[in-house]
Structure of Elongation of very long chain fatty acids protein:
Amino acid sequence: MKGVPALTIWQKLKLFYEGVLRNGDKRTDSWLLVYSPVPISFIFLWYLVIIWVGPKLMEKRQPVNLKPVLIVYNFAMVCLSAYMFYEFTASAWLARYSLLCQPVDYSDSPLATRMASVCWWFYFSKVIELSDTIFFILRKKNSQLTFLHIYHHATMIFNWWAGVKFVAGGQSFLIGLINSLVHVVMYLYYGLAALGPSVSKYLWWKRYLTSLQLVSICLFFSFKTFSLLTIPLLSSKVRHFNILTWHKVFQIPSLGNFYVSVLLYL
């Protein structure tokens, strides 16, 4: 409109930020690391700083022996992942969720709140899992600081912040359910491997762990594609979340290459 000054970039960003705060799920606003994207953004920035500075600080130092820490951490993550898998399954089953088209229930009913709660736990577990990278650095396992590893952790924390902030429940439950099941097996493997050679010799099923990850991503991609292309019932917030989480498909080639390397090693 003539005579009305154009908004500056800063003003546009401010309006966008205020809209983010205003339009979230009111049930989850008071929960830890949900109301504003600022705290999780700072955590991510610190994560990047650690990735950049950590290997340099460890360059002339001996690897840190983290065996007791890794055993406790990995088996704790098995328990947390198993709890989340149970909660996703039970909440969805009791609420008669559809696998293909499930809108978000924004009510304060016990089942809707239970589903929102486990979505938050899933989001918070992704923050906890940033510790994986710190352990790699302290143990001087820098070869494991791959693009796939960093990309996965970075995208998961932001995607699930958005999920809990705007669409805590609904169709997104399927992502958490599948991922939690995979992580039960994955952290069980890591926990057993941390016990040492006496147990490691029984971990012949390592190759199947990567297969499980590939299958889970393909299932995820199939469901998301179906939801985006054929289902008009999903709200715009849910459809935007589906688009945000499509990044998982780009992990398929990287996991495929890793699977081949595991087979060659074995």
About this structure: The mean pLDDT is 84. The chain is about 70% helix and 0% strand.
